[in-house]
Write a structure and sequence with these properties.
alpha+beta; 4-stranded antiparallel sheet; 5 helices
Length: about 100
């Protein structure tokens, strides 16, 4: 029963790019940014890295109110979301 609940929760948190990105930011330890920040297309990275993103079945997104990384005081603004099967997985993409 517990394992089934965990599986359903995991799948439901990775069904859309927005949910996957919010889940990733939450797991990074930034719950306020995960809940309150709006998510927009990262037009710059989607245009510049077009071929790479197409190969990886991915798209880049930016947070409007990104969290601040404690050690460097840098904004964690840009993320890549990859589609694998019917699930989406997010990761930090960087600023450059």
């Amino acid at each position: 029963m517990f394992i089934g609940t965990v599986i359903v929760l995991f799948v439901s948190l990775h069904l859309t790019p927005n949910l996957a990105l919010r889940t990733h930011v939450l797991m990074m330890g930034h719950p306020q940014a995960a809940i309150s920040s709006s998510i927009v297309d990262d037009y710059f990275h989607n245009r510049v890295d077009k071929e790479k993103l197409a190969e990886e079945n991915a798209k880049c997104y930016s947070l409007s109110s990104p969290p601040v990384e404690k050690s460097t005081q840098g904004f964690l603004k840009n993320y890549i979301v990859k589609k694998k099967g019917f699930l989406y997985f997010a990761d930090y993409y960087g600023d450059a």
